[in-house]
Amino acid sequence: MEPERFVIETGAERITSRANPKTVLYAGLADRKKREEAGLFLAEGVKLTRDALAAAFPMRAVLLAEGALEKSPEAVRVARDARARGIPLILFADAAFEKISTEKAPQGIIAVLMLPEKQGGADLERWAEGRRLLMLDEIRDPGNLGTILRSAEALGADGVILSGCADPWQPKAVRAAMGTLFRLPIWIAEDGAACVRRLKSAGRRVLAAALGENGLTLGDFEPLPGDVPVIGNEGHGISPDVLAEADACLRIPMTGGAESLNASAAAACILWEYYRELRHFRR
User: Fold this and answer.
1) Which of 122 and 188 is assigned the larger pLDDT?
2) Comparing C-alpha atoms, which of 268, 107, 73 is closest to residue 175?
3) Is the dihedral of CA 28, 34, 39, 44 positive or negative?
4) Alpha helix positions (H), the chain
5) What is the enclosing helix (H) or strand (E) of 217?
6) Which of 8, 67, 196, 264 is the most exposed place for a label (fewest CB within 10 A)?
7) In CATH, which superfamily holds the domain spanning 3-114?
8) 240 by DSSP, 3-state: which?
9) Higher-confidence residue: 255 or 192?
10) CB of 46 closer than 8 Å to CB of 107
11) CA 222, CA 229: separation in Å to the nearest integer?
12) Where are the alpha helices (DSSP H) in 44-123?
């Protein structure tokens, strides 16, 4: 389909210049400061755009590359669906679209989404009530963060607390989370140790995935619905102040010479054990 015809049929805006203010704005969203200033982030590709639409996640616009008109019928269908829902559609010349995309092989469609209101502060206890939680402490790699969030949703977590972690709205994290960010509530803790104390005062048992005294071994203790497992940094583990506040350490039994698992593998093991043991507690 010719771009002119597509614009007439859909009412899309058309942008051809890499210097256009909207091209510059959306390209800048790869930077955290600019994301926060604009209140926007990007989700690239057919699946993520479709998932954001399905979740009714607040969407500013859908961006479509002119090349997708011939090469990606599925991207065009998703873009038309978004337009039918009243979401602005912008058709970009391929060179301008490539300036915005952070993908090595762009699929020709990007959703521009609104950053959710930051959850953090005085209402932790109310937010946490009734939720099965996972806490992540200083997970700095956005790919690992997104992978863990995806596992958390798949294995029954109702919310995730982030303390000192990478930005979950960074493109690599959004990509790795595979749509989970549109559905899984996230709480940003400004002070991890204080957050643990508050969880404990609300009757939660906080278990730090680490070696130490007063330890529990995964598979050899009774998981409780109110437990909050904590997964630490990829290199140095859980920060000392958070570890000191935890009720106990949680060890994953292993064989062979490996001393530890990486953060995403450890999270998956712990989440699976809780899911297996607590399925009958689901609301």
Assistant:
1) 188
2) 107
3) positive
4) 3-10, 21-27, 32-38, 46-54, 68-71, 73-84, 94-100, 124-128, 142-154, 171-177, 192-201, 240-245, 263-278
5) strand 215-217
6) 8
7) Ribosomal protein L30/S12 (3.30.1330.30)
8) helix
9) 192
10) yes
11) 13
12) 46-54, 68-71, 73-84, 94-100
CA–CA distance, 236 with 138 (Å, rounded to integer): 9
User: Phi, psi (5° rounding) for residue 211?
Assistant: -80, 145
For 162-179, what is the mean pLDDT? Answer: 97
- CA–CA gap between residue 24 and residue 100 (Å, rounded): 8
CATH number, domain 124-281: 3.40.1280.10
- CB of 245 closer than 8 Å to CB of 206: yes
- Taking each helix axis from N to C end, the angle separating 73-84 and 3-10, rounded to the nearest 10 degrees, works out to 30
Q: 171, 145, 146, 150: which is closest to 234 by C-alpha?
A: 145
> Which stretch of DSSP H or E encloses residue 60?
strand 59-65
pTM of the model: 0.93
What contacts 73, CB < 8 A, 6 or more positions away? none
One DSSP character per residue, 123-161 reads THHHHHTT--EEEEES---HHHHHHHHHHHHHTT-SEEE
CB atoms within 10 A of CB 184: 19
Which residue in 90, 107, 89 sits closest to 98, CA to CA? 107
At residue 282, does pLDDT exceed 60? Answer: no
d(CA 265, CA 172): 18
Q: What average pLDDT does the chain have?
A: 94
| Domain spans of the chain, in order of start | 3-114, 124-281
